[in-house]
Structures are given as C-alpha cells and as structure tokens.
Target: Immunoglobulin superfamily member 22
Amino acid sequence: MEYHTQTKTTTKTTKITHKGITSVQQESTTTRRKSSLASSSVSVVTHNSQVPPGKSPPEFIMKPYPVTLQEGKSAVFRARISGDPKPQVQWKRGDKACTDRCKTRYETATQEHVLQIEDTVIEDSDTYKCVVSNPYAELTYSFTLVVTENPDKVDFKSLMKRRVKVPMIQKEEKRVPDEKEMMEILLHVQKKDYEKVCAQYGYTDFRGMLKRLKQMKKKKQEGDSVTILQQLQDVEGHEDSTVTFEVQMELRDPNNAIIHWLKNGELIRPNVSLGKFTLKQIGMKHQLVISKLKQKDVGEYSIQVNEKTLSAKLRVIDELLEIISKLKKTHVKERDSAVFELKLSKPMQNVEWSFNGKPLKRSDKYDIVVLDGGTTHQLVVKDVRAADRGKYAIAIADQRSEAELVMEKEPIKFISNMKTVRVKEKNAARFECEINAKEAKVRWLKNGQEIPESAFHSGKYKVVSDGRRHELVVEDAAEGDAGQYSVVITQEADDKEYRSGADLIVDERLATLQSGLSDQEVRTGHSAEFTCILDDEKVDGVWRKDGQPITESDNITIVKQGAVHRIMIKNVHDEDMGRYSFTAKGVRTEASLEVADPPEIDPELVEKLMKEPITVKAGQTATLNIPFKGKPPPKVTWLRGDLEVEADERAKIERRKDGTTFMLSKCVRDDSGPLSLRLRSSAGSLIVNILLNVVDIPKPPQGPVEFTEHTGQRITMKWKAPKDNGGRPITGFTIERRKEGRNTWVKVGEVDQHSTTFSHEKVEEGKKYQFRIHAVNSEGLSEALESDEVHAGEPYVAPDAPTAPQATNVTKDSVTLSWVPPQNDGGNAIRGYIVERRKKNSNLWVTVNTEPVQGTELVAGKMVEGMEYEFRVRAVNAAGPGHPSPMSQAILIRDPIHPPSAVQDLEVIDTTYSSISLAWKEPKDLGGFTPFSYIVEMKPEDGVEWSRCNMNTLTDTRFTTTGLREKGRYMFRVRAINEAGLGEPCDLGHCVVAMPPPVRPKFKLTAGHKSYLFLKAGDAIRLNIPFIGVPEPKVAWLKDGRALADRASVANTKGFSQLQVASADRSDAGLYTITIENEIGSETFNIHIEVADIPRPPGKICLAEEIQNTVTLNWEPSPDDSPTDRLHYVVLKRDSSTMTWYTLSDRVANTKYIATDLIPGRKYYFRIIAKSELGCSDPSDSKEAWLVPKQKNLFDVKIEKYHEKERESAPEFVLELKDHCIPCGCDCKISCAVTGHPNPKVHWLKDAAPLDENSNCWSTDTYGVCSLNIAITNSKDAGHYTITAKNHLGEVTCGSTLMVIE
Model:
C-alpha cells in the first residue's frame, strides 16, 4: 500500500504560576517559585488519503484535558475515540511508555479510555500523550499534568523540620532571621501563635510586626484573583441523606473565573449524574449538594477556582440492617404468578435475588419490585412452570433469606394425536403429537415394546421435542420398520400415563433410469469411470462385471452420491476389460470397457531411423522391418511425401499386429528420399520419418563445355560439376579426346573432384578436336559430357560483341532497337546481326529475326503489352555468330507516358494539437500510366523551403501529418508522381492551425455519476467529474451558489476535475455546482449531497392522561427529523423505585406514544432518544415524575344489595385515528380509543377491503385502546385504513391515511 503522510499540529497553552513555600536553612533563606505551562496539542499523520466508503480515520470525540492539582491527589484523564477500523490507543509519558504508576483501562459503559495516576507527586509533572491510530491516520494529543505543593500541608512544624540541622556544639552561633524571612514564617502560622513564634525568634516589636504582616497580607490578596473567606470543610452524613459542601470566596473577576468541582481528581458532571450532584451559588457562597448518599460516594471532593484548589472529605455513616419479615414458602398453580416479599429495617437498594444459587435480574420472567423507599422488596415469578420450582433467596449485605416455590401440575391432554403414516422405502416416516404441557417425559414404543436407546444412537430413530410438540422420525424406512408406534407421556407429581398411537405402512420403492452407462476405451494404467443417474436418491443398486458382483478393492471404488451411482477403476489393465452393469429395483444398464493403447515404437529404433539413412546400392532390394505395439492393432500406412505407397511389382508391404515390413526391389537412384510410416488407431497415431539413400554412378557433368583457349599450342576447357553425385562423393573427372574424322576416343587426362578445368597441349594447329568428360565416384564412371568441335588455332575468328541495344521507340506491340557495331570483326566482314530477346527474370533466349539483319537497327514486333523484355545482339561473319552483346535494360512494352496532372479537391478533414489530416481526389490526367503515388509537403507559415511529410510510398488519397507544434500554423501541398516524374503541385492556399476544431464544453458522465449523494459524517467527499471541450474549458465550483469553504479542495487536470473533503460533517451538505466554460459555450452539473450524523436529542416532553390508567407522551421532534433521514424514537421509562430504564418501544415513527401497563401508586419518569442508522442521540428526559393514582381499598358494608339497571351505550370514539406519514422500513402503529357497553367488536379494513392480518400486520384491543401494528412498512402498506366498532346498539367508523415515503 502506498502511504501519503501529512502532519497537522494544533497547540493550546495556558500559563499557570504556583507560589512556592519558604525553606529555612543554616545560612540563608530563599523563596522558590515554580512556573509551568498547562498546554495541549494535536498532531495528525495521514497514512492514506484515499479512505474507502464506510471507513474513517481516527478522531477524538472527547479529548483529555490538561490538569493542575496539588500533590497527593489523583489525576484522571479521559478520552473517547471514533474510527473504522477501530483505532488502537496507547498512553505515553513524553516519548516513552507510561510507568507502572499510570493505570489505564477502558470503560465499556461510557466507551472511554482512562489514564489514572493515584497519589501524585511533583515528579509526575510532565507532558503526556494519547496516541490513536488505524490504517488511515495517526492522531497524537499531547497534554500536561502539573502537580503543585500542597499549602495545607505546610505549617510551622513542617517548616521547622525542613530547617537544616545546626550542629549542637556551637549553640551560640544560631542566626536570627531578618524581618523579611520572619514575615514569610508568620504567613504560615495560625493567628493565635503569632506572639509565641515572635518571642521564639527574639522579636519584641510584636505590634509593629502584626501591622506590617496585615499590610503584607492585604497586598498579597489584592494580587490574587481569588480570596477565600470560608474554607471547604469535611462533611459526613447517613445513607440516603443529602449533604452539602460549601465554600465562601471573593472572586476578583467573576465573569472570567473558571470553577470546577472534582471527586477524587475526576471532574463532576451534574448534567449526566441523574440528580446525584447539584451545583448552587448564593452570593459568594458556592455549594455542591450530594443527594441519596451511598458508600460509593465516600472520597475527597475538591473545588478548583482558577489557580487555587480546596479539598475536603466525605464520610457516610452506615446504620445497622435487620430483616423484619423473611421470605415464606409459596404454593402456586402452574402458569400462575408467585410473589416473594422481604421487609427491612432500613431502605436498601442493592439487593441480590437468586434461584437455586444462580443470580436473577429483572426480565419478562421475573419482576423485581422495590417499595416503601427500599424497605420492602418483592420478587414476582411470572408464568410458573416446573423448571421454576426450587429455592429462591435474597441477599442484603451480609444477611440472607430463602424460601421454596412449590408448583401444582395440571393433567396432560392431547391437543393432536398421532396419525397413520404411509411412506416409500428409504424415506423418513414422521409421527407427531401435541400436548398441553411443555414439561413432560416422553417414551416411544413399537408394537408395544419400548424402542431401545441403541436404536436412537445408531441414527435409525430420531426424537424431536419442541415444547408441547413431540416427533418421532424413522430414518430410511424399510419393510421391517412397518408396525404400530405409540407415545407414552408422564410428568412429575402425576402417576398416570398418557398414550397415543398410529400405524406405519412402508411401500416398496422402484426407480427409473435418468442417465445410463456408456462404452469406454481407456489406455493401460489410466483410470476408468462408469456413471448412471436414477430418479430416486433412496434406491441402492449392485455393480457387476460379466455377470459377477463387484466388490471394492484398492483398484476399484464404488460411490453413491444421492441419485448418482459411480464405479471407478484407478489402474486399468487387460483383466479389467469386460461388460459392466448396474442393477437396482426396476433398473438395469450396462456398457463395455476396452483397453486402448496408442501405437508405440521402441524410442531407440525411432531415433536410429531418424538419424541414420537406409543406404542400398542401385539394383538391390531395400528392406525395412519395424516392430510396434498398440491396442487395438493400428492401421499401417507407408507414405512417400504426402502420397501413400501402394504395393506393386517392386514395392511389397507386409502388415502384422506387432509390426510391418516394407521391401523395395531393383532400387534406382530416383528412389532416394524420405519415407514415412504412419500408425493410426482409435487410441492415437504415430508417424516415423525414414530417409532412403540409393547409391549409383553420378550424373554426367553439366555443360556446355566452354573453351577458354584454343591456340596451336593448347586447348583449355571448363565445365560444371554434375547435378547428382549418385549418393557417393565425386572423386574426380576423366577427359577423353577424338580428332576430326576419327571414331576412337583417347583418354588424355584426369583431374580431382575440386577442379572443373583442363588444358590439353598435345594439339596440332588448325586441326579440329572433340572432347568428352566423365564424372567418377566409388560406383564408377558417369555418362559422358561431349563438347562441340574446336579448332586448334584461329582459322576464322568470330567477331566481338556489339554494344548493348537501346530502345529508341516503344509502342504497345513493338520496340525499335539500335546498337553500335563491334570494334573487331574477327578478320572477316560482318554479314549481319542476330537479335535475341527474353522475358525479364527468364533464362530462355528467343531469336527475333530468322535471317541476319543488315544495319544496326531493328523493329521487333509481336510484343505483348505490359510485358518487360531484355534484348541482346550477336554479330555474324564467316566464322559464325560472335559473342552476345550485354543485355539491354528491361523494356516495358506500352505506349509513351508523361507526368500526371495536379490532384483535385485538396481539403483538411481533421486537426489536433499535434496532427493535421488531409484528403484529395486523384488527378484527371494520370500521364498514360496507372501505377502512381503521392508526395505530401509542408512548410511553416513563415518558412521558405518545402519538406516532405511521407517518407514511404503513399497511394491512398488521405494522409495525416503528426509531430506538429501545438497551435502552429502550416502550409500544405500534394503532388502526384509516376515513372515519368512529378506532377503539378496542388496547395490549400491558406494556413492550417494545429489544434482540434472548437468543441462546446460537455460533461462525460457515466452511470456512476449521481446527482444525489448520501454520506455519513466522517466520510470523505470525492467528486470526480470528467469533461471535454476545445479550447480547454475553465472550471468553477460553487456550494449553494457561493464559493467553496477552505475545507474543500479542488484539483483540475486536462479533461478532469476533482472536489474533495477529507471528513464530511453537516455543514458540508448542500447543492454543489460545477460549471465548465470556454469560448464556444458553457455547461453546468448539480450534485445534491446529504450528510447524515448522529441525530440531535428531541425537545420538551409533555405528559397527559387522555385514557384512564395510561400516559400519552408528546414531544418536540429532533431538529434532524425529516422523511429522508429515516429517524425514529426510542421510548423508555423507569419508576421511582429503581434507577434502571426499561424500553417501552424501540421504533416509534411519530412524536406521540401511549404508555400502558402502569402500576397505580407509582411515580414514573420517561425518556426519549432519537435514533437513526448512524446511532442514538443524547436522551431527553421528562422533568417531572408522573404519578398513577392508586385506588383506595373498598370495605364491605352489610346493607341490602341494590340492583342497578344495566346502563348500555352505543359505541363512541373517544380518540379517533390520525393520518400518518412513515419512511419506508419503519414500524407503524395506528391507534384510537373507543367506548361502549357491551364492549363493541372491532374490525379493520384497508382500502374498503377486510385486512388480512399476518406476521407483518396485526391488531390489538386493550381496554378500549385499539391499535393496528405494521412492521417494516413498504410501499404496499400505503393506503386508507378504516376501523369499525359495533354492538347491538349501533356502529361507528373512523379512518386514517397512511403514506409510506421511499
């Protein structure tokens, strides 16, 4: 991960000065003053600025404050942290870890990290740090602890103890303090001891000293910001009483004074103490009132006023506790409630109830009640069951009382009996019954005999008991499981057995085949697998091979997976071949397994055949015998090249299962070459390449024989080596000669294989000779290469070669050639010229004229248009044709051509900042020659020379010039070119600027760019907006029509703009507008951002009794309550007997709630908390307690009974339904109140149709309060709801509309 580190530091410093004490030493007295700085600072190190959605860097919700206190006190620092992932917290002193004196802990209830230093000393003064970190950032908050000397501990005696001991030997040398030192001593002495101390130090002017001391104190008080008029005194009180700490002081600047009350060094917060602490100020008196004293309130209480700190201690007097009335044994029927009660001699709140030794807490099962201010304690056990029987105990301090709960059972009844079950084999059979008791013992029987425990352990039977319902499951039912099953139920304190029975019928199971087996061919040593699929997972089957059952082994595995049956053979050999079958009830399928190995030849033989050719002599028989392996036997094919070799008189082919033989008789040299053996079967194929070499005599040397010299002294000749050496290296050449007029050939010489020239000197001048040459190898002599006859000497010399012919006129079917005669005519007049031609790249020369042409010019006709020809000329005299002239240049046969005309319609089709694209049409006149190309040239606007743009041949009529200077101005022209030369140029006539065509600004938005964003506080805002436009548009961001705040950063690059806010809060919500603008136009895009945070607390709570024995709560909504925030409320209550809050409803969508089930005679407090997806707000509490009136007890008066006529009344709505608007996903409760006698029946309708109640929608009717509850509302729940109340006296109806906001 790439880390980007950014550091941000914030420092806050407060200067504090503490006055020191005076120390008396042997020789001099000095006054020390300590000055320290209480400061705090924050440094932030960002590891990664890219924070993913849903994650957040660490942040201090509550920072530890700098503390200044006197030595001996406890210093406590608290910090509350947020961040995702959860940050790690480390406390440091300076740059090192804290010592053992520093205690750290984490308080789960308040989610606070605490650093505590007890019994502080001056040496504890230092800078401390709280370091929190996660993968995205690291925060370091630095704060100071300043410990000062305690002035209350400095008295006269301590000062005397601090004096340096003076040697007792010279008592007469004791120095008397001067007046300044004496004044400092008296400042720390009580007023009654002034005279005694002055006399001790030898001061007799006592009155003058007092006057000067009073003036000194007055000056000192004028310099202090606080004057203590009455010190803080220790206080004691009884439990549950109220005590008050009081201090009287005069403040120099009351408006700017900072006053804090502390307990054991920790700051007291009355607003969250639930009435425990109250701060009061009456004139110059400052009071701390502590109510309902407890032992945990004992400790040291301090008041900090600017730089002064006063302390006092609180002691709580405990009274003797006695139990007046103990718990009593209680008898109760099942499902009723049992009540245990204990009375004490004094109020106690902290009591512990237990059941059979296990502690109990208030829940739906147990109700713990405290009455009479804490002297009466009750435990109500609701809905008593058998499991609730036992001993209940209560423990108060060191006293304990317990009693037993006895429950009486009700007889068992079958709500539903067992029924006969019919299943197929391998299916599970299920017997069910339901009784009216949850706690009962159950036994299961089959055919009157109890099912043994081993059958349950084996998994054959399974018992399921769920309260009143009991089930017996018979797994994999077989025919033997059929019979009569019964259940026997008993319970404690009841000797009777309760029975219910039914029959089990098991039918035979037949299956059908979904997918059968298929034949397979497998290589030896490989694995094979047969698979078949049935339509029933419960059916088993048998695998067979050739009719015999197959058993599993190391090589064979049989697998059943549901309805899929498999048999797998790991290592297949010949003995595994056969017919495999699978048989089940009603099913049979089979297939064959064959072993198929690909053809294989011994690798050493293959390597030898491919490296060493098979060599035979011409006329002999070549025999190739190649063994191989393969199953099934492969097809054998012999190939020569790509053609198959067929058997004939010379070629014989033998094919066997394990090999093949190829015989070729009477081999000739042309039989040499590559042979291929191809083996092919269903298992694979193999090809082996073989080289056959047939050796023979070589081919004759290549001619013609050229005579490089033929004079009267010698004849020198040369030739070329033979094309084929016969398969053996050439060892040399043999030369033979024959004179003119003779038939006998005479050997005249030999040369080695490296020489192809020979000189013969035994010649007679003027004689004609003929020579022949044989090539020689180990097999013998080749056929002869015979030469032409040659003269020894020069009787007639052929003329020299003319010059190369030149074309003077070319048409589409003829060419006119001319040349220069040779300089040497050979000693004989030239009789004419022979002209030869050939096609370009051809070796065949053809004579143009049958008779020698007179003169040095010839018109050659019958030419092919478009063809290229080369020409040469021979001069002819009496000795015959001379040497050919050099070849002419290749001449293309066509009509005459000329350069093309100018191109047409030259235009610019595209421009960018670095390129310009051109297009044109071809010239009207191509110059008589179709193949042509183009040249594109350019120059700067102020340039002179044209430079070529395309370095390669350009045949297309489009071209793009690249590498241009941005916004540069250029001139362009285009010319066509053919073999005749360059055509006329065509230019644009104006300059072209290298920049794209102007484009109106436009956003390149995708589906990922939303116009509405919903974020959580702390999330990062990143808006990435791409756009296009030419010229580059200017970008402007606005928020709600105004400039962005400094916390928002904007980064603009080419075609892209990014707005970023590192950590969003509510102030960042609003309408963000981005505008892009250039010379062509502008465009705007709006993004609405909502930032959600923990909601703010609701407003004032109003209580009212609209319905008897209920309380209607109405409260002002949270300022953050809106349909888009999906805000709901949590309603809690507590009575005056406990400090524990209980939730009445945790999802109230409106600002009204009716609290029911209130106990008369009790006072209740209510609390409202706003809740959203991000968390809960601070609570909002009702200021006054709500008292539910308690009805007075009635007493009996023996008078004649008065029979009053029953007063009947028609239904009437006391409180009608109201319309509701609920966010989607919230719960909704629609309520009204109706009266009537007899009680009316209530029916609910939705959109005039009866309402179908289900788990998502249900109704309740409690003492006339009718409610319709809808859980997790959605759009389908919207509509008009109507309630109808009806009795025999009448019918009333009211309705309301429910709107569900998406």
